[in-house]
Amino acid sequence: MFVTRFAPSPTGYLHRGHAFSALTAFEAARAVGGRFILRIEDIDVTRSRREFEDAIYEDLDWLGIAWESPVRRQSEHLDDYQAALAALTADHLTYRCFRTRKELAQAAASAPHGRAETFRGGPLPPLEETERLAAGSPFAWRLSLDAAEQALAGRPLSFVEEGEGPGGEHGTVAIDPGLAGGDVVLARKDVGVAYHLAVVVDDALQGVTHVIRGQDLFEAAHVQRLLQALLDLPTPIYRHHRLLTGPDGKRFAKRDHAETLRDLRARGVSPGELRAEMGFD
Ligand code: GLU
Question: pTM, whole model, 2 decimals?
C-alpha cells in the first residue's frame, strides 16, 4: 500500500510552496488509492507554536486535503527518538558535541572549503569530556560519519529517486552522506532530538513508502538513507519535487515573507483558483 506524508513544521503560516508540496503528496496518494498522512514536526520547541499548527489544519482543509487522524505530533513522541539515539550510541556511532555556535562557525571558516553548516569532528578526549560533563556543559549528539563508514564496511548505499534532485538526479542515487552537513546533529542541546533522526524514525514507524517533498530536502535524503541503514529501518522511495517560484523567479519562503495561504484566502482567492494556478485540476 502506497503511504505518503506531508510533514510541515509549525513555525509560521503556510505559503504557496507548502500548498504545492501538500497537494503533490495528497494527489499522488489519491491517484493510486493510497494513504496520505499529515505529520506535525514540532520538535523545535523554540519556534513551534500551537497557533501555527491550528492554521495548518485550517489551510489544508481549505485546500480540500483530507488526512488521517490522529495526527502524529513529534513533540509527543520524544521517547521514540531517544530510543533510536540510544541504539546508535550503543553502536558507537554518535558522540557528544559541546561546541558552541561560535566555535562551529570559527571551525568552518578555517576549513579549506568550509561551509558554516558542515562539520566533521569527533568526541573530546575522555578527560576533557568528563570535566565538561561534570561542569554541566550542554552538549548535542552528532552522528559520526567516520564511525558510520566503518560500520558499513564498504557496503554501498543508495536510494530510489522517482522525482528529481536539484542537479537532475533521478533513478538510483548512490549516497554521499556528507552532503547534508557532515556529522549532522541527531539531538540538539535544547530539545534532545533533531530533524534527521525524527524524520527517519517517523517515516519508518508510520510505514511511509514514498517521501514526497521539495528539492530543498534532496541532500537530506543522503544522510537519512544512512540513518535508515544504521537503524535497520526500511527505506522509502523518494520523490523530490521542483520548488515553486514566484513571478520574480525566487522560491517561496517564510523568511522572504511569502504571501501566506490565509492572506490569499482573505483577499478572496478560492482553493480552486490556487489549485489551477499550481497545475492541479
Ligand atoms: N518538517 C520539514 C519542513 O517543514 C519537512 C520534513 C520532510 O518532509 O522530510 O521543512
Answer: 0.93
